[in-house]
Amino acid sequence: MGKGIIKYIKNILYCLIQLIYSGDDKCVICNEYGDENEALCVQCRKKLRHSGDSFYLCHNDEEYPIWSVFYYSKTVKELIIRLKYKSDFICGEILASHMLELVKKNGLQFDLLAYVPMTKRALRNRGYNQSEFLANYISKSLNIPVICNLIKILDTKDQIGLGEEERWNNMEKCFAIKESKLIRNKNILLVDDVITTGATTFHCAHCLKKSGVGNVYILTIAKSKV
Ligand SMILES: [Zn+2]
Q1: Residues with Cβ < 8 Å from 154, sequence gap 6 or more?
Q2: Stated pTM of the model
Q3: For residue 162, how far is its CA from the centre of ligand 1 (angstroms)?
Q4: N or C: which end of the chain has fewer CB within 10 A?
């Protein structure tokens, strides 16, 4: 299926969800009645554990600053699962709006947005990339373009059975840059959903950096303990 068709279907799905949702002010997580104009009720909002502090993702003398909006609590996990596996773009908007808030609050400055890519096969199966959705939301609001030249050429699933060191090193082969001229000396904000070991995110950042990018900053919804 072509990228255009996927985008078309995605937009129709999104519009349908918006239509269904607009007449219903129930909380998207607990299904209890919530506040008007709020997709999450007060109780569920209270369960979101904000992180917000930056830290560094380090490996082999390379380091990238990273901001995570939340800790990986039950409510955040549910929102991410719904965005990632159930095409629930209302949950996606809730998460993206918090990411945008963090960008503004911390005054993050960058020229382009990028996102952690999926292989063509994985994208065909899911129909959309949740990190691309989040990047697009931030892009629209800040009027900063999303660059799509970071690609995933190999599946990382084939890493089962490998030790942590091998897993890290093996992942370098999974990502590539299609056209590096567009990103040379630019500062890029790389968007990902959850950071666990950081291996995927690190190698995406590394791939951008070695293609001549100025600074790479990383923004994720949540950080999870390994
Ligand atoms: Zn609720």
Answers
A1: 119, 173, 174
A2: 0.87
A3: 40
A4: C
